[in-house]
């Protein structure tokens, strides 16, 4: 794998470290600042809504200015957002804290395109491995993010987590330095008669990839966002829930070192189906009790299931467009996926508050089953067409 892919690996790790740190504490900060406790996950929901909103302008920026300019804008957004989060904690103001989610989400949305950039700088026969490797940068994030929270949460006493946001502001700055070194392809040539977007998103491969992606991320996010709240209600401390999120994040990203090879050997469809079964296993295990190891094991199954489904979906997406269509197809896909994530981020807190932990876990099962049915249909259809 070439040096550019490894640099993108680190850039993705920095983006995800910031995100994992925010997942670990945003619901807790929101719960402490919001008068209405059902709004505890609102800041994270707004962040995911901004991530969704970033998809379309990111596509325009990448197509006109190139990948590097777009990624620079993303790092600036995350820096501004982190500073605003810190100001919200400093002032004890829930509104200011929520406002920080907007630039952070925009930056995170742009950062999701590192996996697409990896496919563009890798050789054609190594694209699935490059995508999986860059996403595996989350292994670094899974260690760095929670440790950053644990060691900085009381750094600016008595303001809990203010020191964490000060430390988090360094991550996008490091990303800017790395972007100055990495070599990325120029913008794709402009097509005088581009394929209509409605044609691209109507292709079976696009539909299946988008559904698998939105279900994998939506199911994972619904459970993950509510986990710190459930653990708090079960009597566990911040360090306990942070360690569970770390185990979950490691399970999300560590398989990236082998997921690409699994896809090369068994195909994206089978890998997506295995990920769906692991996600359902997480939901089933979560219903068995509130022991610490139950949370750890269930969230690790959830992370592993997400990785297999999401990397498989990203690989399948690459078959749904040509080089000139790629940026618009990728932007449309991420708009759909992170729109779902935004919905689950908000509904996670409301569902947990109104119906409890059992309802949160049970809700993910029907969408996963629908996605698996669609993937199996597409696999059968491709096999039939290949035979014909």
From TrEMBL:
This is MFS transporter. InterPro entries: MFS (IPR011701), MFS_dom (IPR020846), MFS_trans_sf (IPR036259). Keywords: Membrane, Transmembrane, Transmembrane helix. It comes from Limobrevibacterium gyesilva. PANTHER family: MAJOR FACILITATOR SUPERFAMILY PROTEIN, MFS PERMEASE. One of its GO terms (molecular function) is transmembrane transporter activity. The chain crosses the membrane at residues 44-62, 69-88, 94-114, 126-145, 165-184, 205-225, 245-264, 271-292, 298-319, 331-351, 357-377. The keyword 4Fe-4S does not apply. Residues 205-388 form the Major facilitator superfamily (MFS) profile domain.
